[in-house]
Structure formats: structure tokens, C-alpha cells
Amino acid sequence: MAAESADPTRILVAVNQSTIKGYPHASISRSGAFEWTVKKIIRSNTSGFKLLFLHVQVPDEDGFDDMDSIYASPADFMIMKHRDRIKDSSFGVAGEAWVKKGDPKEIICHEVKRVQPDFLVLGSRGLGPFQKVFVGTVSEFCAKHADCPVIAIKRNVAETPQDPVED
Amino acid sequence: MAAESADPTRILVAVNQSTIKGYPHASISRSGAFEWTVKKIIRSNTSGFKLLFLHVQVPDEDGFDDMDSIYASPADFMIMKHRDRIKDSSFGVAGEAWVKKGDPKEIICHEVKRVQPDFLVLGSRGLGPFQKVFVGTVSEFCAKHADCPVIAIKRNVAETPQDPVED
């Protein structure tokens, strides 16, 4: 029943940048989702899982995002960090990381269709009922439309920065 | 990083009866959610997880559900089956199972508050866009309101019975 199947469970972790501060700042909630996955799902069974990190980059509204490509972008650094972690034998989970540009919910659903993960992990902000109206649309959309099971990791209110610009 | 923490990951699996056929018929989609959890999450790491089976029984609308208690209900049998499975050393995952009566979404959110699982697994029917309007409210409600991460396991369309009464 609980015998290990041949193929590892493939987990797609969608990472985006801060919605308020904008690209290239990573959203805190997304790293929380990754840490949660390792701690609660993968645990010590590093050979049983494969991590797929999808970094979604939202293009600037004015269309001028050429500047970003001059710098080695923080998204690149995050991918390197994930790759380093993946290579780090003390972590030991197989993985891949890549970047796509566009509307996060469309990109995520498209990539789910393409890579067919066993499930998708998304971070979402743990906000009050009032704030909930304005956020969380990416995870709600994906829970409904992605072609695989979706788990949204809400952040503790205690971990929410006072200043939303820091998010 | 991926070191096993002392406490196992506690997974609440909510099991309800068929919405159409009514209590005491188990919903097919719910057993799919359980099988998925074992295959894709627990895998061979049986000591890393604890399964909590919440069976939700919806009271008859007319209030006469005394008849049900005359029979050893199928819910009882399901719990016994889960308990047997839990005791079966070839499965080897620690677990508990219990029944609550009431509105599934309210019961589930209440039990999440009470037992504080690491995450909640729910089955949901894999239906077309038209049918989606009428179903899936339990998982959508819980994804929004439960005080823990929620993963909804959609059933393959191929596994959906032709006759909804069989569901």
C-alpha cells in the first residue's frame, strides 16, 4: 500500500515577486511555502520527491523591463540559490528551476499543463477578512483551474510585515 | 534542512458520504483523496505521518436519522476499515478515525481548529465547467476558511460514474 513507487512525487513550487514592491523583489510568502513543503511533506524522504521551482516574473506595466536584464536579476540569484540547495548533498532533493514572464495565474496554469506535476504549492498571504478581498486571487484561480491538486500555504499573521512594501 | 522533525506530519482527511445518494453511502471522490495522499505524499515514509480520518455524516433533512443507528452504519465499517488498515503493519501509518454529524464545511473547519492538523485533504469531483457551478463548495469554503493548508484532490473525469446516484 505505502510502497515507494518508482517515480518521485513531482512538486511544482510557484515563486513570484512582491506584488506591491514589484519585480525583482521576492515575495516573503512564497519562501514560506517552500520551507513548509520541505518540513511537512518531504521530511526525510528526499529521494521520494522532485522539486520544480517556477519563478514568475511580471512584466513592467509600461513595457520597459529591459533595465532588469542588465542586472543579474534577483530571480536569477534565487534560482541559483535553489540550484545550490538542490546540489547540496545535505538537502538531497532533485530539482529544477526556471523563469517565465507574464500573468502569474495564467503562467502557473500553463506550466502545470506543460510539466504535469503531481501537485502545486502556492504561497498566499495570511490576511484579515477585509484584505482578503484584494489578494489571494492567484491561489484561488489556480485551485480552481490548474490541472493538478493545489495546496496554498497561508502565512501566519505574525510573519506579515507591518509595511506592505516589505512584502 | 530536510531532517526529520520529532513530530509526524498530521494529515486530516475529511471523508463524507455521497451528496446525491445520501448517508450512509460513501462518496467515491473521498476515497480517491485518501489513496492519492498515501501514494503521493506519504509514499514509503510511514513513520513521518499521522492520518486523521474525519467522517462527516449529514443529518437527514426531516430529522429522522434514528434508523441509521439501528444498523452498524457503513460509516462505522469505513472507520473499522481505516482502523484495520492503520493497525496493518504493512501500511504502518499511525492514525485515528471518528465521526461528526452536521454541515460538512462547518464541521471540517471546526475540527481543523480543534485537532490542528498540518494540512487538510479533501476530495472534490472533477466535473466540467458547467457542473462546477453546483459542486465543490465544501472544498472552496474550506480552502478559504480552514485554519490550515488545504489540498483538494480532483477526481479524473474517467472515474466519475455515469449515473450521479452512484457517486
From TrEMBL, chains A, B:
InterPro entries cross-referenced by the UniProt entry: At3g01520-like_plant, Rossmann-like_a/b/a_fold, Universal_stress_UspA, UspA
Domain UspA: start-end pairs: 32-154
GO molecular function, one term: AMP binding
One Pfam family cited in the UniProt record for this chain: Usp
Designated name of the protein: Universal stress protein A-like protein
Organism: Sesamum angolense
